[in-house]
Amino acid sequence: MTLTLNRPDKLNSFNPELHEALRAALEQARNDAAVRAILLTGAGRAFCAGQDLGDRDPRKATEAPDLGHTIETFYNPLLRLIRSLDKPVICAVNGVAAGAGANIALACDIVLAAKSAKFIQAFSKIGLVPDSGGTWTLPRLLGEARAKALVLTAEPLPAQTAAEWGLIWKAVDDDQLMPEATALAKRLAAGPTFGIGLTKQAIHASAANTFDQQLDLERDLQRMAGRSADYAEGVAAFLDKRAPEFKGR
Ligand code: T3D
């Protein structure tokens, strides 16, 4: 399933309608067994500029907004949904990814970006704290030194540097972004997606587990994977010297 953030005149920034549409589409993807990979991208020249600041104009408000409420209502459920999907989520960052837009991209499983794209932790420019998981994702992927500099300065990070620093999987020529991302999504969708879902679970759990706990988890997940039709098919296909036909179960 390909999902395209589609408010290009506002650089695909989030208003409640976009939040609701994306959440509904992701829930549909989660519940539909025929969907075995998700590709997220943006329409026009940007991936996503984060929160629509037009909806936050202080000159039109009588009191300060409760941003904790909007984070709890919109952003956190979206991030939890993306992280908990047991299907691979590929993000094709087609242009600038700023604020929550950057951190939503970074929460996906595999991130490809056009070489012209950049990642901006824009929050500090307007007096906010990075959200959408940024304060968790960035230090883990980059280390504290680079994470802190990025969030405190809000300097744009070009796609190529993001790839060199290990923040994303790769930066590709602009005209190759969608062909490459689509081919990757199709490849994963045709793969053993039951095992892929378990693998995601293991990697995510490692952030909070000790080595011993992780070994136990791997044992439990391998037990489940070993009972899957995809595993039987994978081994049979290997022994038959033919391409496997995985069903995702
Ligand atoms: O509020 C809460 O619920 C809390 C949650 C917060 C999460 C967040 O994401 S906070 C961070 C919000 N985002 C930003 O601060 C980024 C703001 N945008 C920018 O800094 C720049 O637009 C970009 C660096 C992303 C791109 O710059 P550039 O020069 O390529 O484009 P531009 O000219 O600035 O923008 C083009 C149009 O998009 C422009 O509209 P116009 O003048 O053509 O009618 C601009 O106003 C609009 N736009 C860009 N970003 C936003 C936006 N409109 C509303 N909200 C935006 N975030």
TrEMBL record:
Q: Does the keyword Lipid metabolism apply?
A: no
- Any one Pfam family here would be ECH_1
Tell me which InterPro entries the record gives.
ClpP/crotonase-like_dom_sf, Enoyl-CoA_hydra/iso, Enoyl-CoA_hydra_C, PaaB1
Is Transport tagged as a keyword?
Answer: no
Provide this UniProt record's keywords sorted from A to Z.
Isomerase
Q: What is its EC number?
A: 5.3.3.18
Which CDD domains has this protein been placed in?
crotonase-like (cd06558)
Coiled coil region boundaries: none
For this entry, the protein name equals 2-(1,2-epoxy-1,2-dihydrophenyl)acetyl-CoA isomerase PaaG
Q: Which organism is it from?
A: Mesorhizobium retamae
